[in-house]
Amino acid sequence: MSSPQPANSAVAAAADDWSVTSLLADHDRCYRAVLSRDRRFDGRIVLAVLSTGIYCRPSCPTAVRPKRANARFFATSAAAQRAGFRACKRCRPDAAPGSPEWELGDDLVNRAMRSIAAGEVDRFGVQGLADRLGVSARHLDRALQARVGASPVALARARRAHAARQLLEHTDLAMSSVAFAAGFGSVRQFNDTVREVYARTPSALRADRPVTAQRGTAADRAAAHIGSIVGFDGGHSGPAGSSAPVPVVLRLAVRAPFDAAEVLRFLAFRALPGVEVGRTESFSRTLSLPGGPAVITLRAGDAGDAMVVEVLATDLADLTAAVSVAERLCDATCDPLEVADLLEADELLAPSIAAHPGRRMPACADGFEALVRAVLGQQVAVRRGIRLAGQLVEAVGRVAPAWAPEGLTHLPLDPGDVAEADLSSLGMPAARRRALTSGAVAVADGSVSFDTHAGREATRESLLAVPGIGPWTADYVALRGLADPDAFPVGDVALQRGAANLGIDRDRTALLARSEAWRPWRAIAVAHLWAASQQRPTVESSIP
């Protein structure tokens, strides 16, 4: 048996080599990436060319490479836009997957970037976001300017511009509908931003969309057809239970390699009855968003290496929030090549990494759902835990709108409803019922927060303060509820079994020590260990 890889400064240095700060401090490395068209740099940095006034991905396929003297590098598209550059029409740098760095850390900038990506500036404004992060708006602006070269307003504006472009190119929604769905406060703001970022009007963007986008998928054509039937007006679809809202179909930005079929299987196996439905080629679930109920459906792209999301939303202003959930479910921010570089150094884990380089760790739609799954799954098999969760949904869940697809009968569990419910009918020990109630009360009263702006370590500590919640449960919630790339529930039976199947010492102390060398991407290692646990018939995992 191999000895654990040491957790030393070399591991940390390897991770730092890919940080935005490290990359921007080494323009020669960035320029070499441009010359080699290295896709690993896409989304981490942005190339801007002084002679053309355009910003691109480092891997832009254009035949001409810029002179070194004309190349400038930025941390984000927003920073390039702020400097006066417009997006390349060919490589579409604004559509590149975001830097996984924002998912790794837990400092102010990382939490702010995650919150802005989830649309919190649109919903609460910069001051509201700053209040939620516990800092002043001025301090938040300084921190983001220093790290990514753009303000919260500029970052949110870039996100809205990208969302608008997607909707213009892949749907036939009216311009006013596109504007509000993308998060703009007015049609005028939408027009001005699109013209400035893309040097074209919204009408020109739609007219110039690629032939494949004009033809659209079957789902795109269905969306246009349904829109004409129900007379969608760009806002709400009417009272809950009335005519179905217009489906909006978008392609998620993910880094290759990506195994969409495996993600769908993972989610389908753990589908929460009434709230989720997993089929061979798709996965659907209900959501409760600020504007009302919504449904998202994931399907593999044509080649199986991408994911397409269809959104049915009561209010199209919730589109960004719905897509953000879809990205969580797909672990879209993962960089599998960077992860493989680190994890393949472990000779016992390396064969699994080589065989499944695109493996991800799908998160739950929200943290409270992960907490429910963890508590109900304590010391029982996966299927038993899911059945208990389904009974809870049936007992206290709110009914889904009539337009929800078949099998989706309920909305996600609400912490307040669970906190007030009588759980005595659920077939589980009283101590576990008390833990579930205590957890629901803590989430409902704000003692435990799963919002994107909340610090992961602070959330874990607040969970451990809840009666009946131990390290095992808190670690699972960090993994699938907080989508922490470095979460490692060492007490999980399936994880230990998978380690043993790969020849790794399953003893908790030894396994935890070995996992230090897998940081900061231990969550992907968990995905490989869980998969390895199924290599031979054994007792199922105790966590759903």
Keywords for this structure?
544 residues; 48% helix; alpha+beta; disordered C terminus; 9 strands
Could you walk me through the main structural features you see in this protein, from its secondary elements to its overall organization?
- By secondary structure, the chain is α+β, with helices and mostly antiparallel strands.
- The protein is 48% helix and 8% strand.
- The protein is built from 27 helices and 9 strands.
- The chain has helices at 9-16, 20-24, 27-36, 77-82, 101-104, 108-117, 120-133, 137-148, 152-170, 175-181, 187-198, 202-207, 211-215, 218-230, 260-269, 319-330, 336-343, 350-355, 367-376, 382-396, 415-420, 430-444, 456-464, 471-481, 493-501, 508-515, 522-532, and strands spanning 46-49, 54-56, 71-74, 86-87, 247-251, 276-278, 282-289, 292-300, 307-313.
- It has a 5-stranded antiparallel β-sheet.
- A hairpin with a 2-residue loop joins strand 7 and strand 8 (292-300).
- Helix 19 runs antiparallel to helix 24.
- The longest helix is centred in the N-terminal third of the chain and has 19 residues, at 152-170.
- The chain is globular.
- The two termini are 30 Å apart.
